[in-house]
């Protein structure tokens, strides 16, 4: 008998921004082209949060990050959010919420990502990124860490 494998409801969000332009990388989802977001992904079995963030950046935009990279910053923040109904089929039937751990990744310059899971990308101002994303928590992370007056 084949068992369905459901996604873990623990995930990471990695907001990538270019230090020289202070613009944010936004990705257009394949499964919902009206949905733009930062890098996100599910934590795999026996994987640390940092390992997940590094793997997801590699898988989604083709950028290799060293395990000890100081430009990948764990915000030590986790938010709970309701999974959009049209994405719930990926999770066990009783799962309606996800816990997302926030990371920031500073890159020196904007780069052309190698897309494997998304239709398109744009480098935009933090204000534009907040307007583009359907994800309230993605918007909140950008507002908190890239639109505040506090330096990173």
TrEMBL record:
Residues reported in the UniProt entry to bind substrate: 7, 29, 40, 81-84, 135
GO MF terms held by the record: dATP diphosphatase activity; dihydroneopterin triphosphate pyrophosphohydrolase activity; metal ion binding
Enzyme class (EC, first level): hydrolase
SUPFAM superfamilies: Nudix (SSF55811)
Limits of the Nudix hydrolase domain: 7-146
Keywords: Hydrolase, Magnesium, Metal-binding
Domain of life according to the entry: Bacteria
One Pfam short name: NUDIX
Cofactor comment text: Binds 1 Mg(2+) ion per subunit.
Record GO biological process: folic acid biosynthetic process
InterPro entries attached to this UniProt entry: DHNTPase, NUDIX_hydrolase-like_dom_sf, NUDIX_hydrolase_CS, NUDIX_hydrolase_dom
UniProt binding sites for Mg(2+): 56, 60, 117
Cofactor(s) it depends on: Mg(2+)
EC id: 3.6.1.-
Protein name: dATP pyrophosphohydrolase
Species per Swiss-Prot/TrEMBL record: Haemophilus pittmaniae
Record gene name: nudB
């Amino acid at each position: 008998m084949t068992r369905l494998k459901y996604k873990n409801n623990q995930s990471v969000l990695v907001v990538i921004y270019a230090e020289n332009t202070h613009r944010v990388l936004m990705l257009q989802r394949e499964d919902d082209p009206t949905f733009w977001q930062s890098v996100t992904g599910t934590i795999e079995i026996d994987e640390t949060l940092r390992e997940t963030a590094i793997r997801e950046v590699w898988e989604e935009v083709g950028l290799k990050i060293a395990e000890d990279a100081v430009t990948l910053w764990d915000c030590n923040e986790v938010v709970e959010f309701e999974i959009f109904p049209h994405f719930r089929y990926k999770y066990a039937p009783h799962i309606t919420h996800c816990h997302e751990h926030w990371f920031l990744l500073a890159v020196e310059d904007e780069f052309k990502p190698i897309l494997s899971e998304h239709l398109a990308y744009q480098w935009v101002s933090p204000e534009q990124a907040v307007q583009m994303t359907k994800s309230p928590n993605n918007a909140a992370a950008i507002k908190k860490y890239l639109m505040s007056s506090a330096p990173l």
